[in-house]
Amino acid sequence: MSRQSNRTTDSKKMNAELFTLTYGALVTQLCKDYENDEEVNKQLDKMGYNIGVRLIEDFLARSSVGRCQDFRETADVIAKVAFKMYLGITPSVTNWSPAGDEFSLILESNPLVDFVELPDNHSSLVYSNLLCGVLRGALEMVQMAVAVKFSQDTLRGDNVTEIRMKFIKRMEENLPAGDE
Amino acid sequence: MAVCIAVIAKENYPLYIRSVPVQNELKFHYTVHTSLDVVEEKISAVGKAMADQRELYLGLLYPTEDYKVYPSHMIIVYYTPVCIFFLLIENILLYRHTRYGYVTNSKVKFVIVVDSSNTSLRDNEIRSMFRKLHNSFTDVMCNPFYNPGDTIQSKAFDSMVSAMMVQAS
Fold first, then answer.
1. A113, A115, B25, B150: most buried, per Cβ within 10 A?
2. How far apart are CA A139 and CA A143, in angstroms?
3. Do A114 and B156 touch (CB under 8 A)?
4. What is the ipTM score, two decimals?
Protein backbone atom coordinates (compact mmCIF):
# COMPACT_ATOMS: atom_id res chain seq x y z
CA MET A 1 0.00 0.00 0.00
CA SER A 2 3.02 2.23 0.38
CA ARG A 3 3.61 3.94 -2.89
CA GLN A 4 4.17 7.41 -4.25
CA SER A 5 1.10 9.53 -4.13
CA ASN A 6 0.61 10.21 -7.82
CA ARG A 7 -1.66 7.22 -8.34
CA THR A 8 -5.17 7.82 -9.55
CA THR A 9 -8.14 6.89 -7.39
CA ASP A 10 -9.14 4.30 -9.98
CA SER A 11 -6.10 2.14 -9.62
CA LYS A 12 -6.45 2.38 -5.84
CA LYS A 13 -9.93 0.89 -6.17
CA MET A 14 -8.65 -1.96 -8.27
CA ASN A 15 -5.97 -2.83 -5.79
CA ALA A 16 -8.39 -2.85 -2.89
CA GLU A 17 -9.99 -6.12 -3.95
CA LEU A 18 -6.66 -7.71 -4.59
CA PHE A 19 -5.55 -6.50 -1.17
CA THR A 20 -8.65 -7.96 0.48
CA LEU A 21 -8.20 -11.28 -1.28
CA THR A 22 -4.51 -11.36 -0.41
CA TYR A 23 -5.24 -10.72 3.24
CA GLY A 24 -7.91 -13.41 3.18
CA ALA A 25 -5.51 -15.91 1.67
CA LEU A 26 -2.98 -14.98 4.34
CA VAL A 27 -5.41 -15.56 7.20
CA THR A 28 -6.71 -18.87 5.83
CA GLN A 29 -3.19 -20.13 5.27
CA LEU A 30 -2.28 -19.19 8.83
CA CYS A 31 -5.37 -21.03 10.05
CA LYS A 32 -4.37 -24.12 8.13
CA ASP A 33 -0.81 -23.95 9.40
CA TYR A 34 -1.48 -23.30 13.07
CA GLU A 35 -4.96 -24.86 13.41
CA ASN A 36 -5.49 -22.86 16.59
CA ASP A 37 -7.33 -19.55 16.55
CA GLU A 38 -5.42 -18.05 19.47
CA GLU A 39 -2.11 -18.84 17.86
CA VAL A 40 -3.27 -17.31 14.59
CA ASN A 41 -4.36 -14.17 16.43
CA LYS A 42 -0.93 -13.91 18.00
CA GLN A 43 0.81 -14.37 14.68
CA LEU A 44 -1.37 -11.75 13.02
CA ASP A 45 -0.53 -9.36 15.81
CA LYS A 46 3.18 -10.04 15.40
CA MET A 47 2.99 -9.54 11.66
CA GLY A 48 1.09 -6.34 12.18
CA TYR A 49 3.69 -5.16 14.63
CA ASN A 50 6.46 -5.68 12.08
CA ILE A 51 4.45 -3.81 9.50
CA GLY A 52 3.72 -1.01 11.93
CA VAL A 53 7.30 -0.27 12.93
CA ARG A 54 8.11 0.26 9.26
CA LEU A 55 4.91 1.91 8.23
CA ILE A 56 5.29 4.72 10.72
CA GLU A 57 8.30 6.08 8.83
CA ASP A 58 6.36 6.17 5.61
CA PHE A 59 3.44 7.77 7.34
CA LEU A 60 5.49 10.50 8.95
CA ALA A 61 7.24 11.22 5.70
CA ARG A 62 4.05 11.47 3.70
CA SER A 63 1.78 13.22 6.11
CA SER A 64 4.23 15.63 7.73
CA VAL A 65 2.22 15.95 10.91
CA GLY A 66 4.23 17.25 13.79
CA ARG A 67 4.64 15.77 17.21
CA CYS A 68 1.31 15.21 18.93
CA GLN A 69 0.88 17.04 22.20
CA ASP A 70 -1.36 14.51 23.88
CA PHE A 71 -3.18 11.27 23.37
CA ARG A 72 -6.29 12.95 22.04
CA GLU A 73 -4.34 14.51 19.25
CA THR A 74 -2.78 11.15 18.52
CA ALA A 75 -6.21 9.59 18.29
CA ASP A 76 -7.38 12.21 15.82
CA VAL A 77 -4.30 11.84 13.66
CA ILE A 78 -4.68 8.07 13.58
CA ALA A 79 -8.32 8.23 12.64
CA LYS A 80 -8.36 11.13 10.22
CA VAL A 81 -4.96 10.88 8.57
CA ALA A 82 -3.51 7.42 8.92
CA PHE A 83 -6.57 5.31 8.29
CA LYS A 84 -7.61 7.56 5.46
CA MET A 85 -4.21 7.35 3.85
CA TYR A 86 -3.78 3.60 4.03
CA LEU A 87 -7.22 2.06 4.05
CA GLY A 88 -9.32 4.83 2.59
CA ILE A 89 -11.73 4.89 5.51
CA THR A 90 -12.19 7.40 8.30
CA PRO A 91 -13.17 5.84 11.58
CA SER A 92 -14.69 7.96 14.30
CA VAL A 93 -13.10 8.45 17.68
CA THR A 94 -15.47 7.89 20.58
CA ASN A 95 -15.88 6.47 24.04
CA TRP A 96 -13.10 8.30 25.77
CA SER A 97 -12.47 6.95 29.22
CA PRO A 98 -12.71 9.45 32.07
CA ALA A 99 -8.96 9.46 32.51
CA GLY A 100 -8.47 10.25 28.84
CA ASP A 101 -6.18 7.34 28.19
CA GLU A 102 -8.54 5.00 26.38
CA PHE A 103 -10.68 5.52 23.33
CA SER A 104 -12.52 3.62 20.64
CA LEU A 105 -12.23 3.78 16.91
CA ILE A 106 -15.51 2.92 15.23
CA LEU A 107 -15.16 1.63 11.69
CA GLU A 108 -18.35 1.55 9.67
CA SER A 109 -16.72 -0.61 7.06
CA ASN A 110 -13.55 -2.61 7.14
CA PRO A 111 -11.95 -3.15 3.74
CA LEU A 112 -10.11 -6.21 5.01
CA VAL A 113 -13.33 -8.13 5.55
CA ASP A 114 -15.18 -7.59 2.29
CA PHE A 115 -16.86 -10.88 1.30
CA VAL A 116 -15.61 -12.66 4.42
CA GLU A 117 -17.87 -14.84 6.52
CA LEU A 118 -16.31 -16.56 9.47
CA PRO A 119 -17.13 -20.27 9.55
CA ASP A 120 -18.33 -21.73 12.83
CA ASN A 121 -15.13 -23.54 13.64
CA HIS A 122 -13.20 -20.28 13.81
CA SER A 123 -15.37 -18.41 16.24
CA SER A 124 -12.53 -17.02 18.32
CA LEU A 125 -10.48 -15.83 15.38
CA VAL A 126 -9.89 -12.09 15.33
CA TYR A 127 -9.71 -11.74 11.60
CA SER A 128 -8.38 -8.19 11.43
CA ASN A 129 -5.88 -8.60 14.21
CA LEU A 130 -3.18 -7.40 11.87
CA LEU A 131 -4.56 -3.89 12.32
CA CYS A 132 -4.02 -4.09 16.06
CA GLY A 133 -0.42 -5.05 15.54
CA VAL A 134 0.13 -2.26 13.05
CA LEU A 135 -1.20 0.36 15.45
CA ARG A 136 0.81 -1.03 18.33
CA GLY A 137 4.04 -1.19 16.33
CA ALA A 138 3.64 2.24 14.80
CA LEU A 139 2.94 3.95 18.11
CA GLU A 140 5.79 2.14 19.78
CA MET A 141 8.17 3.76 17.31
CA VAL A 142 7.00 7.15 18.50
CA GLN A 143 7.59 6.20 22.09
CA MET A 144 4.04 5.39 23.05
CA ALA A 145 3.17 2.01 24.47
CA VAL A 146 -0.44 1.15 23.77
CA ALA A 147 -2.70 -1.85 24.07
CA VAL A 148 -4.99 -2.39 21.10
CA LYS A 149 -7.81 -4.85 20.76
CA PHE A 150 -11.07 -5.37 18.94
CA SER A 151 -14.11 -4.95 21.12
CA GLN A 152 -16.71 -5.31 18.38
CA ASP A 153 -16.45 -7.06 15.05
CA THR A 154 -18.89 -7.18 12.15
CA LEU A 155 -17.78 -10.73 11.43
CA ARG A 156 -19.12 -11.78 14.81
CA GLY A 157 -22.48 -10.18 14.21
CA ASP A 158 -21.98 -6.71 15.65
CA ASN A 159 -23.10 -3.69 13.68
CA VAL A 160 -19.76 -1.96 13.58
CA THR A 161 -16.15 -2.77 14.12
CA GLU A 162 -14.70 -1.18 17.22
CA ILE A 163 -11.03 -0.99 18.09
CA ARG A 164 -10.23 -0.10 21.66
CA MET A 165 -6.90 1.61 22.26
CA LYS A 166 -5.42 2.15 25.70
CA PHE A 167 -2.42 4.25 26.44
CA ILE A 168 -0.01 2.46 28.74
CA LYS A 169 3.00 4.66 29.09
CA ARG A 170 5.45 6.88 27.37
CA MET A 171 8.57 4.94 26.53
CA GLU A 172 12.22 5.75 26.79
CA GLU A 173 14.30 6.06 23.66
CA ASN A 174 15.25 2.52 22.84
CA LEU A 175 15.14 0.05 20.01
CA PRO A 176 11.98 -1.99 19.48
CA ALA A 177 11.86 -5.48 20.90
CA GLY A 178 12.39 -6.99 17.46
CA ASP A 179 11.04 -10.16 15.97
CA GLU A 180 11.08 -13.27 18.05
CA MET B 1 -42.28 -16.72 -8.09
CA ALA B 2 -39.20 -18.79 -7.71
CA VAL B 3 -40.05 -22.01 -5.99
CA CYS B 4 -36.66 -23.61 -6.32
CA ILE B 5 -33.20 -22.27 -6.85
CA ALA B 6 -30.22 -24.49 -7.46
CA VAL B 7 -26.53 -23.91 -7.96
CA ILE B 8 -24.69 -26.73 -9.65
CA ALA B 9 -20.96 -27.12 -9.88
CA LYS B 10 -18.91 -27.75 -12.96
CA GLU B 11 -18.86 -31.46 -12.20
CA ASN B 12 -22.65 -31.48 -12.04
CA TYR B 13 -23.13 -31.99 -8.36
CA PRO B 14 -25.27 -29.55 -6.44
CA LEU B 15 -23.62 -26.82 -4.43
CA TYR B 16 -26.87 -25.40 -3.20
CA ILE B 17 -30.54 -26.31 -3.56
CA ARG B 18 -33.33 -24.46 -1.84
CA SER B 19 -37.00 -24.89 -2.46
CA VAL B 20 -40.19 -23.47 -1.03
CA PRO B 21 -42.53 -25.27 -0.09
CA VAL B 22 -40.18 -27.62 1.60
CA GLN B 23 -42.22 -30.78 1.37
CA ASN B 24 -41.72 -31.06 -2.36
CA GLU B 25 -37.96 -30.98 -2.09
CA LEU B 26 -37.37 -34.35 -3.65
CA LYS B 27 -39.44 -33.48 -6.65
CA PHE B 28 -37.45 -30.31 -7.16
CA HIS B 29 -34.19 -32.18 -6.89
CA TYR B 30 -35.43 -34.44 -9.63
CA THR B 31 -36.62 -31.53 -11.73
CA VAL B 32 -33.28 -29.76 -11.45
CA HIS B 33 -31.45 -32.92 -12.28
CA THR B 34 -33.39 -33.43 -15.46
CA SER B 35 -32.86 -29.81 -16.39
CA LEU B 36 -29.14 -30.44 -16.35
CA ASP B 37 -29.42 -32.54 -19.47
CA VAL B 38 -31.04 -29.68 -21.27
CA VAL B 39 -28.34 -27.32 -20.01
CA GLU B 40 -25.60 -29.62 -21.26
CA GLU B 41 -27.26 -29.78 -24.63
CA LYS B 42 -27.47 -26.03 -24.88
CA ILE B 43 -23.87 -25.58 -23.83
CA SER B 44 -22.60 -27.95 -26.45
CA ALA B 45 -24.85 -26.45 -29.06
CA VAL B 46 -23.27 -23.04 -28.55
CA GLY B 47 -19.96 -24.68 -29.33
CA LYS B 48 -17.04 -22.38 -29.94
CA ALA B 49 -19.07 -19.22 -29.61
CA MET B 50 -17.47 -16.86 -27.13
CA ALA B 51 -19.91 -16.53 -24.29
CA ASP B 52 -20.75 -12.96 -23.47
CA GLN B 53 -23.15 -11.85 -20.77
CA ARG B 54 -26.18 -12.43 -22.94
CA GLU B 55 -25.29 -15.96 -23.80
CA LEU B 56 -24.70 -16.89 -20.20
CA TYR B 57 -28.46 -16.83 -19.85
CA LEU B 58 -29.97 -19.94 -21.37
CA GLY B 59 -33.60 -19.03 -21.02
CA LEU B 60 -36.48 -21.40 -20.84
CA LEU B 61 -35.12 -24.88 -20.54
CA TYR B 62 -38.13 -27.03 -21.00
CA PRO B 63 -41.68 -26.74 -22.15
CA THR B 64 -44.02 -26.09 -19.29
CA GLU B 65 -45.18 -29.22 -17.60
CA ASP B 66 -48.18 -29.86 -15.47
CA TYR B 67 -47.83 -31.65 -12.24
CA LYS B 68 -50.56 -32.34 -9.78
CA VAL B 69 -49.16 -32.33 -6.31
CA TYR B 70 -50.96 -33.62 -3.26
CA PRO B 71 -49.30 -32.33 -0.12
CA SER B 72 -51.04 -34.81 2.11
CA HIS B 73 -49.98 -37.82 0.08
CA MET B 74 -46.79 -36.60 -1.59
CA ILE B 75 -47.62 -38.40 -4.81
CA ILE B 76 -47.09 -36.93 -8.22
CA VAL B 77 -49.69 -37.98 -10.77
CA TYR B 78 -50.70 -36.63 -14.11
CA TYR B 79 -53.93 -34.81 -14.25
CA THR B 80 -56.78 -37.07 -15.09
CA PRO B 81 -60.40 -36.49 -14.30
CA VAL B 82 -60.59 -39.85 -12.56
CA CYS B 83 -58.22 -38.83 -9.80
CA ILE B 84 -60.52 -36.13 -8.57
CA PHE B 85 -62.87 -38.66 -7.11
CA PHE B 86 -60.15 -40.34 -5.15
CA LEU B 87 -58.63 -37.39 -3.34
CA LEU B 88 -59.87 -34.42 -1.42
CA ILE B 89 -60.57 -31.64 -3.83
CA GLU B 90 -59.36 -28.92 -1.54
CA ASN B 91 -55.91 -30.46 -1.52
CA ILE B 92 -55.46 -30.31 -5.24
CA LEU B 93 -52.87 -27.84 -6.30
CA LEU B 94 -51.96 -27.45 -9.89
CA TYR B 95 -48.51 -26.11 -10.49
CA ARG B 96 -47.02 -25.18 -13.77
CA HIS B 97 -43.33 -25.22 -13.48
CA THR B 98 -40.97 -23.53 -15.80
CA ARG B 99 -37.25 -23.89 -15.50
CA TYR B 100 -34.68 -21.35 -16.44
CA GLY B 101 -31.01 -21.92 -16.77
CA TYR B 102 -27.87 -19.83 -16.62
CA VAL B 103 -24.32 -20.97 -16.94
CA THR B 104 -21.17 -19.05 -16.06
CA ASN B 105 -17.90 -19.06 -17.89
CA SER B 106 -16.55 -21.41 -15.26
CA LYS B 107 -19.35 -23.87 -16.05
CA VAL B 108 -21.22 -23.30 -12.83
CA LYS B 109 -24.91 -23.59 -13.53
CA PHE B 110 -27.84 -21.87 -11.94
CA VAL B 111 -31.33 -23.28 -12.34
CA ILE B 112 -34.45 -21.46 -11.28
CA VAL B 113 -37.76 -23.27 -11.18
CA VAL B 114 -40.74 -20.98 -11.12
CA ASP B 115 -44.36 -21.57 -10.61
CA SER B 116 -46.05 -19.57 -13.29
CA SER B 117 -49.62 -19.97 -12.22
CA ASN B 118 -49.95 -16.50 -10.77
CA THR B 119 -48.13 -14.16 -13.09
CA SER B 120 -45.71 -15.01 -15.76
CA LEU B 121 -42.43 -13.40 -14.93
CA ARG B 122 -40.97 -11.37 -17.70
CA ASP B 123 -37.70 -12.37 -19.20
CA ASN B 124 -36.02 -9.30 -17.74
CA GLU B 125 -37.01 -10.21 -14.23
CA ILE B 126 -35.58 -13.67 -14.60
CA ARG B 127 -32.40 -12.20 -16.00
CA SER B 128 -32.08 -9.84 -13.07
CA MET B 129 -32.65 -12.72 -10.67
CA PHE B 130 -29.82 -14.60 -12.32
CA ARG B 131 -27.61 -11.56 -12.17
CA LYS B 132 -28.25 -11.23 -8.45
CA LEU B 133 -27.56 -14.91 -7.98
CA HIS B 134 -24.34 -14.63 -9.91
CA ASN B 135 -23.21 -11.62 -7.89
CA SER B 136 -23.94 -13.33 -4.60
CA PHE B 137 -22.18 -16.41 -5.85
CA THR B 138 -19.04 -14.45 -6.65
CA ASP B 139 -19.19 -12.93 -3.17
CA VAL B 140 -19.31 -16.44 -1.72
CA MET B 141 -16.35 -17.39 -3.89
CA CYS B 142 -14.34 -14.44 -2.60
CA ASN B 143 -14.78 -15.57 0.98
CA PRO B 144 -11.32 -16.84 1.89
CA PHE B 145 -12.83 -19.54 4.08
CA TYR B 146 -14.82 -21.03 1.23
CA ASN B 147 -13.15 -23.84 -0.68
CA PRO B 148 -14.42 -24.11 -4.25
CA GLY B 149 -16.41 -27.32 -4.46
CA ASP B 150 -17.88 -27.12 -0.97
CA THR B 151 -21.59 -26.75 -0.49
CA ILE B 152 -22.55 -23.15 -0.02
CA GLN B 153 -23.25 -22.36 3.60
CA SER B 154 -23.02 -18.60 3.49
CA LYS B 155 -25.71 -16.78 5.43
CA ALA B 156 -25.61 -13.83 3.06
CA PHE B 157 -26.31 -16.12 0.13
CA ASP B 158 -29.14 -17.80 2.04
CA SER B 159 -30.79 -14.52 2.88
CA MET B 160 -30.50 -13.31 -0.71
CA VAL B 161 -32.12 -16.49 -1.97
CA SER B 162 -34.90 -16.28 0.63
CA ALA B 163 -35.56 -12.70 -0.37
CA MET B 164 -35.88 -13.76 -3.99
CA MET B 165 -38.28 -16.56 -3.17
CA VAL B 166 -40.38 -14.48 -0.80
CA GLN B 167 -40.62 -11.50 -3.10
CA ALA B 168 -42.40 -13.59 -5.63
CA SER B 169 -44.91 -15.46 -3.49
1. A113
2. 7
3. no
4. 0.74
